[in-house]
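Hi R.,

Here's the input for the adenosine-5'-triphosphate complex you asked about:
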Amino acid sequence: MYPMPMLQVDHVSRNYNIAGSPEKFCVFENVSLKVDEGEFVTVIGHSGCGKSTLLNIIAGIDKSDTGCVLLRGKAVQGPGIDRMVVFQNFALMPWLTVYQNVRLSVEAAFPDWTEKQLDGHTRRYLEMVSLEGAENKRPAALSGGMRQRCGLARAFAAKPPVMLLDEPFAQIDALTRGVIQDELIRMWNETRVTIFMVTHDVDEAILLSDRIILMSPGPAAAIARTVDIPIERPRSRRSIIEDQRYYALRNDIIRFLENRQEEKTA
Ligand SMILES: Nc1ncnc2c1ncn2[C@@H]1O[C@H](COP(=O)(O)OP(=O)(O)OP(=O)(O)O)[C@@H](O)[C@H]1O
Ligand SMILES: [Mg+2]
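And here is the predicted structure with adenosine-5'-triphosphate in place:
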């Protein structure tokens, strides 16, 4: 018997009502996927194909019209500390400091801990993302990169079984993105949390993932196929570009995205 997947999306569909029309707009239909414990899976697809919608349904922030999401075999009913989300727009609590933002999720995840444990754990995760020294600043006083570091520290510090990342680096410049990707890899190595991540960036997906899910363009999007990334870990941006398999994978995915776009516009 196979072990139970950490996360299972089972025949999930999402439709929106169209104002003034009896017709419905179908974002995607019958999406099914599994993510094993400790796996790093990314989703790539054209803008509007429903990646964020799917991630939000897994997070329990949005509801599907058919199907269900299972976490260790149990149906997800709403948002929970067992699925921490990192959003593209950071979504920190603006009235709290960096320290307080991270500490809040530590307190929620470990309600029985002592003050010393809560403080030590919070500071350890701030250190992991190089935010020591900025702990008393509020989000408005931080750069985009620092805000996203804070978001990652907040999510990882809760040690959730599953992390959901929706284009966490999209608003960050390329150089800073590289540094934070390294921090993400480091934290993932340390915790081996199961990660489901949405990205537009093919190179980022190859660098980070065990598996890449390719979605066809919407409306009525679907999972077109899955690409396994066999490149051994640890990986770095420098080491993967020296790997012959990297170019074949990259071309395959880019060709998929281009062809699907042409099919849609033809
Ligand atoms: N509240 C809403 N009402 C109606 N349609 C919506 C609503 N929210 C999203 N949609 C539609 O659902 C589709 C999927 O949106 P979603 O944000 O999930 O796409 P995405 O793949 O994350 O895109 P991007 O890559 O641009 O972030 C889009 O066509 C969008 O217009
Ligand atoms: Mg999106």
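One thing worth noting: The chain is about 40% helix and 25% strand.

Cheers,
M.
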